[in-house]
Protein 1
Amino acid sequence: MNIQNAPGQQTIPRGHQNHNPVVALLLSLVPGLGQLYNRRWIKGFAFLIIGLSLIIALTLPVIHGVAGLIDLGDTPEKDDSRSLLVQGILSVIIGVIFLGLYAINLSDAFKDAKKRQQGTRTPSVRQAFRDSWEHGFPYFVVVPNFIMMALIVIFPLLFMISLAFTNYNLYNSPPAHLLDWVGFANFKALFTEAVWSKSLLSVLSWTVVWTLVATTLQITLAFFLAVLINDNRVKFKRVIRTVLILPWAVPSFMTVLVFTAMFNDTFGAINRDIFSHFGLSIPWLSDPLWARIAIIGIQVWLGFPYVFTLITGVLQSISKDWYEAADVDGGSRWKKFRFITMPHVLYATAPLLIMQYSFNFNNFNLIFLFNKGGPPVSGQNSGATDILISWVYSLTFNENNYKMAAAISIIMGIVVAAFAFYQFRKTRSFREEDMY
């Protein structure tokens, strides 16, 4: 029997009108029962079988893993806090995914019941599959990748963050010892204890100086050479450009090792064959100032060919009509460079030039291969040329001070994320398509 509504409204069957979405929501506390209440038989039995299987299979392991994450073990040499930490984090990730699927089950049952109450017909099996494929295809593709990302990317990140709140170091290493949660003690030590605060300030300031100076110099040199060689009066452009690109063609680690030998204080070619004629012997590897100057010089050598190639390509794409029009208006070389060359180059290469700064901020290879962050500095547990990433490496693999390395990594990640977020906000990366 149907109930007639006001003119223009849909006729709602009596059974559908009495259908209660709240009842469907409460029944779906047991996965699948709400769907069965909505007469979605295949979906209901699928939810019921899969949901009960997951509950039976995962409930106890997840609870056990979370419990181990909380106490990190009770008996030394029997309980390995690292394993418990790994199992606990995986349990939390699996638990969050499980709760998400459970929430989808509740929402699905409630929405289906709401539609049925409003008189919407229950779709056939074929129509249900067709609707799921048409409207849910993006989710079928994204969800497996998201789960994989959670296990491959998010899990190591959570593990590193967790170590920053423990007392894991060389002298308190599992399984001989148990780890304990220490809260923000490691972060407090970074800013209050003299050795750590001095080291952090020194490394952070040098990282900023290194990033700005080395990157700016390599971009400036590349810009100057590209503009100079692009001049019509310069002959053999192809040969000169090929020679300038050669440093980019050689593997960087080989170049760094060669420069390390050349800058050696005793037998290096720079001191022996060049400065020896002036009675000089510069301590490139043993003096902090000269070591930093050498590293900046090497990075300029390694980095400018890439930027030179980018800028050269942009310069060749600028129409000559612009310069001819400027000549007619009496524009000087400086004005043509300022109002034509510079804007065109920056517009085309600005994102890539910004990436050069990001790359040098974490340029571990050069720092490690040249001098392993040295020379050592009195009163610090970091070297004179250590940047944040190389300092973290040294704390992790040389000193086994995992807790402080993790704490510094978090600080470094916050700084980089803040900078990246600022850059993205200045672009259209976070805007929706309909906002353009």
Note: The chain has two domains: 2-163, 186-435.
Protein 2
Amino acid sequence: MPSSRRTYLAGVGVGLSTIIAGCSDESRPTSTPIASNWEQIGHDSRHTSANTSISNISQGDTHWRTELEANAEISGVAVIDNRIIAGGRREMERGFLSQISLGDGEILSSVELSTPVIAPPVLSENSVITTCRIDGQTGNLRSFDYEETERWSHRVAGTLPAPPAIHQSVVYGGSRKGEIFALEESDGDVRWERTLGDEQTEGAVSAPPTVDETGVYIPLSSSAAQGIYSLSPTDGTTKWKIEGPRILSILARTDDVLLVSYPSYDVAAFDIRTGERRWSTSLAEKEVSPPAVSDGIIVVADETTLYGLEAETGEERWSITCDPDTAYQPVIAGPTVLIQSENSLICCSVEDGEQLWTSDHSSGIPIVPFENGLLFSPAPNTLAAYSSYQE
């Protein structure tokens, strides 16, 4: 089955060894990870990076640690129930997809792929979609069932395609050549496709589409037509567009607005029906993370500070200095928000920004929460589960 890390690993199967380790303080045993779902890059196709059904993630330590072959590199992971789906690459030219037990880190099954997996898997109840690189000019999406049988493949123009999004049994994706498409989840048949951009500079879709019942929201860069597009989920026609901004990161859809992080200082909210700007807020530093949002609070980071903003107005509610890693979207798990820094993980209250705990662990992939902990990658070939101390 699949697995993944920041650049996306490759090669699972023969020769993998699993190491299970308890917490470092034997007097404080950690809790067994509890089943939860984090099926897409930002939790679901709206990419809010929030799972409000999780109760809390409190202070803890490493519950288990699984090491893959030395030449493996994890690109990212997703979770469905008690299973982790991980994808990645090995020796640059091959890939792997693995199913791992959430409870103890045991590798349940794996399949070696001929192409490296370069992004976290995207899951539904019936499908595992991997994003793969074929060569310097093309990539593809590959669909598997949970028995590891490949069902279909869809070729994508341009190197390093962004992961897709799944919504209501349709797979939405884009390419660095400005191609936008909707595929049937069951068989990969094209429902619709179109090209944004122009012949000379083309377009580039650098982040997964954000999708709901009303629209497919596309950030387009590297083109005279760059900007933000709202397309019809039914046929891909343009509903509205905002010309000009060069958006490189994932968009978040909440309530009646689309939240956008600019690659230079700003966070903005746009009306989901018209594209009209509701508000924008400038941050102190240039690099800005993708936004996460839950219960009317937006959490976003710049190079030095983590912020909580009012979703309705963009006004600052709280801020803490914590040297966050802006490459990653903050992760909201119930009442807490988790952010990576260069050498640690930091947990704060979403409500007021109070710092609840820090850990000296760091991760090379986007962290994924479960009910009482989170998954992280402390080394390119290693996956670990951090869970709360037993009470």
Note: The two ends are 34 Å apart (CA to CA).
Protein 3
Amino acid sequence: MKPTLPATLLHTLAPWRNAPAWHIAFSGGLDSTVLLHLLASLAKIENLPPVSAVHVHHGLQAAADAWPAHCQSVCDALGVPLRVMRVQVSPGASLERAAREARYQAFMQVMVAGEVLFTGQHRDDQAETLLFRLLRGAGVRGLASMPEHRPLAQGHLVRPLLAFSRSELEAYAHQHQLQWIEDPSNADPRFSRNYLRHRVFPTLTERWPQAITHLARTAEHMAEAQGLLDELALMDLQRADQPSTFPWLPLPSLALEPLRELSDARQRNALRHWLIPLTGLPDSDHWAGWHALRDAKGDAQPLWRLADGQMQRSGERIWWLPSTWSEFSDASVSWPDPQNPLELTGNGQLKFIGEAPEGPLVIRYRQGGEIIDVPGRGRRDLKRLLNESGMPGFVRGRLPLVYRGEQLLAVPSVAGAWARSVGEVQLDWLPQSCDQGLS
């Protein structure tokens, strides 16, 4: 006999029993109403973390204005605190996606470290997700569909109902005489998921009654396959994660040669894994940018533009530059008191270590043709000095140059490569979001 829904759910919840708090994403629909009732009922007989509900009001349709009151009445009856959050949905090509992003932004505002947010997606949702992504040409990661749990803000997002079908949730709701909201937009076939739910799946299940179960099982297989690919990626990235000669530079980077030794498929697998926390992943046709970056000549400075930044190559190393990397002002800045550190807008901090020269000084950025006096080497061209150091080209435009009048007085230098500055004074630059500076 199949275990009851509460018993199975309690087993699924076991890893999260020690969380500081549980939140339920409560739309008022069937799925979240069943989940809320289940957790509120279990909380009466089990020692569970504090349970509360969160209702996100998108304001996209007039009918939705009545939903917060309905959700409040349900929560009051169950003795569960409710928080209603109103969001603005940014217009875009996909209203579904924009609403989802706004909803999860609201959820992240609720989360505190270690807390758990439960959502009510079920087996039918999983099957729809798989088929939807299959039709979009997704790879293994996409076809793994919705994971049972994943990180969210400082806590965790958990989907404890994925093992159950919508019909099982309906049966539970009728058994306990639950009342839920029927969202009118769920019947609109203009939305892709609704089209699949109302037009495609009825036809599939008429011919193959177990289609939803089998598709959800395929998503499980894909999730397992993706886990193996992730393990392989970690092995390959471990070889490429060699220390940079610029430890002060606050950017993710990898050695290129260990990646070159891999097959093209393993390169893409490793880079997908590496890029996930950094940017939206490229589609299949966009990987030509990686090949151009990888195969460029050593003295070239190729780049590969992605959704949230770009990958650049300097010598035999690749670097990730987020979109925010270029958000700094290269206008001249006065430094009236060099005895104290100077905060550079969007470009970190500059300070002298030792007896600083008398001010006022001015910070400028490279224009080309700069000359500096180097103790023991005479007047040297700054470009040549930077070339000797091997400093990546994308850093050079941000390098703060310290002037007194028209004299280039000091430049942060690579330790041991060329002069620090006059005498024993050392100029230290701590780039944005970096723990170690360039001296």
Note: The chain has three domains: 5-222, 241-326, 333-430.
